[in-house]
Amino acid sequence: MNDMNLTATPLREIGVHGGGHDVLAREIGERFQSGRAQEVIDFIAACDVRVLEIVGLASTGSCIWRQDAGLWRTFARMTGKRGVLWRGADDVRHRDAAFSEEMRALGRQRLASAATDPVALAAAREFVLSCVTPRLSYPGIARDHVLALVDAHLALCREAGVKDDDNGQSGILPLLECLDDPADLIAVAGNTAYCFVQAAWAHRTRSAQLSARQRWLPWHDFFRRHPGYLDRYHERVADPALIMRRWPHVPPTLRWAMTRTLLSAMPYRPGAEQDYFFDAVDAIIRHDPADFVELLRKTMLRLDGGLACLIWRQQYPALLPGLFPLMMSARHCLDDLSVPLNLILGKEPGLLLSGREDSLPRAIAVLSAEVLRGVLPALATLIGNGASAELRAAVVDAAKKLAPADLADAGWLASGNDKLRLACQEILLAHPDKDSATLLLSRC
């Protein structure tokens, strides 16, 4: 259909399925700008509303309402009467007070035209809540105006009987993102669970540049008054201080859910942010090490670098013996465990001999040159005993980080083991330092 000349085809005959909505969107734009605007106006006024909704999903670059804010408003005045607003040049950078007021006027018109018809009124309310409210914010909007618009939105939610849960529309989020003071967000959050979710998300986004310790400080009193919100939405907050204050007072199942939240949110990189989480997780582990071991064993909790570093640093007797085997298990990504893996093998290189054969190639790949140099004796044992082709290939690749002389210093060239000497040849032949490698090849 894209290649057909549809100039003479009535718009109502252009289907919207199978990509047809892009074609129809293109035709609407072209005809509107080529002297056939009335045809477009009549089509929008009479077609099935579902057709308008589908056209609004068109992603074609020829959608003129996506390229020009003025044209978006022009089409919004037409489609808005049908309860539809297309995606286009309507984001916040195109908005101002006049734009916001025009959106509100569209909503008022829909509500007024519905009169007392229950079905039409329900549709009009849904249009305002889902389509109008998200477009009311604009740069520089006054705080009091934001709060008034939020209040109006919530009043309409109550009229519409919207269920108060976290599955409601995110309509007020753009407005809440205009509130600079956390106190205003906290005040809105106290209205309903729906408001809490939106306010917490707005705060979380805005406070991302703050340190983890500071991020949720303004909310501590709120969660003291509303502990149930933390119980239900701890994953969205993921604050160690708040969770640890609540942790002793919740059932075991929720405790471990909160623990998983902390472990999932714990920063990978060492530093003050990671230490903030370390303090909380350390307290949980020391509370009942055996239970924590069970949590790691029975759940599909992913062991990451932060937790592994904590276990190694604190040397927990109940967790330390199983740490290296757990890291080497198939379900963990060793790229994410490179820091603790280097720490552990740097201290105890002989542990490599106990690693799972199918995980050893991945482990070798993330070792630093210094640690790799230290595990050469263990690798010599593994290769001499008949290591897999995958492990030998990984060693050949990793050994490029070393100097060829490191192999000689580790006794590999002097070994009488044929498998190890063959591995030496493979490493030296692939080594980027050709001159040094060639000198040693004659000794293999």
Describe this structure in words.
With 444 residues, this protein is mainly α. The protein has helices at residues 20-32, 37-46, 49-55, 64-67, 69-79, 97-114, 118-132, 143-160, 173-176, 182-189, 193-206, 212-215, 220-225, 227-237, 240-246, 252-265, 272-287, 289-298, 305-314, 320-327, 338-347, 360-365, 369-374, 376-384, 389-398, 404-409, 418-430, 434-441. The longest helix has 18 residues, at 97-114. It is flat.
What is the radius of gyration computed over CA atoms, rounded to a whole number of angstroms? 32 Å
Beta-strand content bin: under 5%
Mean pLDDT: 90
Largest sheet: none
Instruction: Output the helix-strand order.
Output: HHHHHHHHHHHHHHHHHHHHHHHHHHHH
- Structural class from helices and strands? mainly alpha
| Helix run count | 28
Q: Gap between N and C termini, in Å?
A: 69 Å
Helical content (DSSP H or I, runs of 4+): 55-70%
Notable traits:
mainly alpha, single chain, 0% strand, 62% helix, 444 residues
Q: What order do the helices and strands come in, and which of them pair?
A:
Elements: H1 20-32, H2 37-46, H3 49-55, H4 64-67, H5 69-79, H6 97-114, H7 118-132, H8 143-160, H9 173-176, H10 182-189, H11 193-206, H12 212-215, H13 220-225, H14 227-237, H15 240-246, H16 252-265, H17 272-287, H18 289-298, H19 305-314, H20 320-327, H21 338-347, H22 360-365, H23 369-374, H24 376-384, H25 389-398, H26 404-409, H27 418-430, H28 434-441
Helix pairs in contact: 6-7, 7-8, 10-11, 11-14, 16-17, 17-18, 17-19, 19-21, 25-27, 27-28
